[in-house]
Amino acid sequence: MKKIETKYVVIPAIVFIFVLMITGVFLVNKFINHESDQSERILVLERQIDLIEEKLEQEQHPADGIFAGGYSYLAIGNSITKHPLADYWWNECGMAATTAENDYYHIVLNQLKEKKGNVSSYAFNFAIWETLYTDRAETIDVLDYYLDESLDLVTIQLGENVQNLDTFESDFEYLIKHIQEISPSAEIIVIGDFWERENRDAIKKKVSEECNVKYVSLDEIKDDKEHQCGMGTEVYDEDGKAHIVEHCGVAAHPNDKAMRYIADKIIESMSN
Predict the structure, then answer these.
(1) What domain range includes position 236?
(2) Could you report the per-residue pLDDT of 120-135, keeping only the tens digit for each?
(3) Can you give the pTM of this predicted structure?
(4) Which one, 45, 76, 124, 151, has least CB within 10 Å?
(5) In terms of domains, do 150 and 168 share one?
(6) In the prediction, which pLDDT does 33 show?
């Protein structure tokens, strides 16, 4: 009798423990999903605030005079193109370049000056477009501030910060066509991603071909440690003061060698 009683006691206990485990997994997943949704909503709100602040800043400082004659170049990108000052980054230029002169934008600019003579240019961090995935079209009028019908060259270095790909293809197509509409004479060159993620880069290449614009692949240096800044690298601020990279996000960005590679690819792909 004792064995039979033990059998009937053990089985319900096992079932009870199993139910507890399943319930625990469900609650944990629900909590994680809730936290993830909350994080996404917070990110969207932060980007909407950034967008409002950018618009207010533009209203206070009209764009007249950004492109003051000669050959004109607009570089649209994220932190690889230009990052503002922060406690972990000390120069307003392409992140991880040892100096401003060594980021891809300034290298291209100097090359253009040698070829074209008088060149006016501007580098614009348009990361808001990447991260405000709920409605990227809202950000376009911020970009209009820098677009001009006289533009000769526009480079687009965007994508690395895009997490949600649901509307990425149509949004990227809209972005390119909008630039073509406002700046019909500009040669547009799309720069491939520096980091690999799903088929994001393939989408950019496909859209570039469909919109008949140049596409520069970074496959040869993508996710390559030798082309990343790395921890402990010495970089310099605008005054020439040295700083040591101790932020893993900065460390993953393109080093001088990679910046030179990107710039060379842009120059090589230009029509003239």
Answers:
(1) 68-269
(2) 999 999 999 999 888 8
(3) 0.81
(4) 45
(5) yes
(6) 46
Alpha-carbon span 82 to 157, nearest angstrom: 10
Residue type, 158: L
Q: Which two tokens stand for residue 52?
A: 């409002």
Query: In total, how many domains does the chain have?
Result: 2
Paired sense of beta strands 234-236 and 242-244, if any: antiparallel
Q: Among the residues of 61-151, which ranges form H helices?
A: 104-116, 127-131, 140-144
| 8 A C-beta contact, residue 109 and residue 121 | yes
Contact 133, 54 (CB under 8 A): no
Is residue 40 located within the same domain as residue 101? no
Residue for token pair 């607009």: 74
Least confident piece of the model among 14-28, 146-160, 255-269 = 14-28
Let me know whether 124 and 201 are in one domain.
yes
Regarding whether 183 and 92 lie in a shared domain, the answer is: yes
Pairing of strands 119-125, 153-157: unpaired
Q: Are 54 and 138 part of one and the same domain?
A: no
Which tokens hold the place of 205?
Answer: 């290449």
- C-alpha pair distances (Å), 8 with each of 16, 18, 20, 233: 13, 16, 19, 66
pLDDT of residue 192: 98
Give SS3 for 164. Answer: coil
Domain boundary among 43, 61, 79: 61
Average pLDDT over the chain reads 86
Question: Per the structure block, which two tokens stand in for 159?
Answer: 């994508």
Residues 51 and 134 in one domain: no
DSSP state of 75: E
Distance of CA 175 to the CA centre of its chain: 14
One-letter identity of residue 117: G
The DSSP output letter for 80 is: T
Distance CA 55, CA 9 (A): 69
